[in-house]
Amino acid sequence: MKLARITKPLRSVQVRVMLTGDLNANLERYAQYYAQVHGDSVDMRALIPEILRAFLDADREFQSWSRSAESQPRCVSAPSSSNGSTKAPA
Predict the structure, then answer these.
(1) Distance between CA atoms of 40 and 9, rounded to whole angstroms?
(2) pLDDT at 78
(3) Average pLDDT score, the chain
(4) pTM
(5) Is 16 left (phi over 0), alpha (psi -120 to 50) or beta?
(6) DSSP for 25-89?
(7) Among 14, 78, 50, residue whose Cα is nearest residue 86
(8) Which is nearest to 2 in space by CA: 32, 39, 34?
(9) pLDDT tens across 37-55, in order?
(10) Which residues contact 64 (CB under 8 A, 6 or more apart)?
(11) Which pLDDT value is given to residue 1?
């Protein structure tokens, strides 16, 4: 199993996401698999951030890009006016 035991309580956050029926069914099955492997039941909502974390941690291309993006200076855009324009008043 790629997902390790969840050892610390997750802070509460509200996440709104629409899952397709097959993705929801797979998530339910994954929660059952987690319970069988670890002996603890887990709410599907607690699995979602852990699955995302595991996915991002395992994505080596993303990790490489993230490290290079962190080392580059950030561009600062001009603040926009209330009408959405970025032009300075004349």
Answers:
(1) 14
(2) 55
(3) 82
(4) 0.60
(5) beta
(6) HHHHHHHHHHHHHHSS---HHHHHHHHHHHHHHH-HHHHHHHHHHHHSPPP-PPPP-TTS--PPP
(7) 78
(8) 34
(9) 999 999 988 899 899 999 9
(10) none
(11) 80
